[in-house]
Design goal:
- The protein is mainly beta.
- 11% of the residues lie in helices and 46% in strands.
- Strands 1, 2, 3, 4, 5, 6, 7, 8, 9, 10, 11 and 12 form a 12-stranded antiparallel β-sheet that branches.
- A hairpin with a 2-residue loop joins strand 10 and strand 11.
- The longest helix has 21 residues.
- The chain is globular and about 35 Å long.
- The chain starts with a helix and ends with a strand.
Length: 196
């Protein structure tokens, strides 16, 4: 009887230890929805038009660029969203933007443009900073983006595949933006940011 009790205690202890070691550590901070319908935590800039349709944010560009940008500034965070680009749009996710205007010169631009003329800057790349680690196909379907900014490390995943892992300290904190440029439509939904 003592041996059976000891085995049960040992099994319980082992399972508890395994569970505690393998459990993910969640941030105590809440996730915030960005760019929601009727929200007051974002604004627009540039020439693209932005509308909501059935809970989806749609950006339409006609030769010029436009953005939705957060009013809040973020330093260390994880951004998740879903996006659906048509075959002609030039889009991107801009993080840690500083100064006036939203450009790759004052932000990290994690690109959305499978057909970029320079494939070093295609979807998954950090424009001017890092080529994509892998090529993903995203046109005309819903995809996921996960972008993690922690101190000097910028990482990105498209549909679960890591496309960027950059060490860079040019921009330490700033606003978040979504782009619609050139000609076409880009759709976004479920845009959430969690501060780390």
């Amino acid at each position: 009887m003592l041996m059976k009790t000891s085995k049960l205690i040992y099994t319980f202890f082992t399972l508890t230890l395994l569970f505690s070691c393998s459990s993910p550590k969640f941030s105590s901070k809440n996730s915030t929805t960005l760019f929601g319908e009727n929200s007051n935590n974002w604004s627009t800039e540039g020439e693209a038009s932005w509308i909501f349709e059935d809970g989806v944010l749609i950006g339409t560009a006609d030769s010029l660029a436009g953005f939705v940008v957060s009013k809040a500034s973020f330093k260390n965070f994880e951004l998740t969203l879903e996006f659906n680009p048509d075959s002609t749009i030039n889009s991107g996710v801009y993080v840690r933007c500083v100064g006036g205007g939203t450009t790759p010169d004052n932000c990290y631009e994690i690109n959305i443009w499978d057909l970029h003329p320079n494939q070093e800057y295609r979807t998954g790349a950090v424009v001017f900073k890092a080529e994509p680690l892998t090529f993903v196909e995203t046109l005309n379907k819903w995809n996921t983006y996960r972008v993690r900014c922690e101190d000097g490390r910028i990482q990105a995943w498209v549909n679960g595949e890591q496309t960027a892992d950059l060490q860079d300290m040019d921009f330490k904190e700033g606003y978040i933006g979504l782009q619609a440029a050139s000609v076409g439509k880009i759709r976004f939904r479920k845009v959430n940011v969690t501060e780390l």
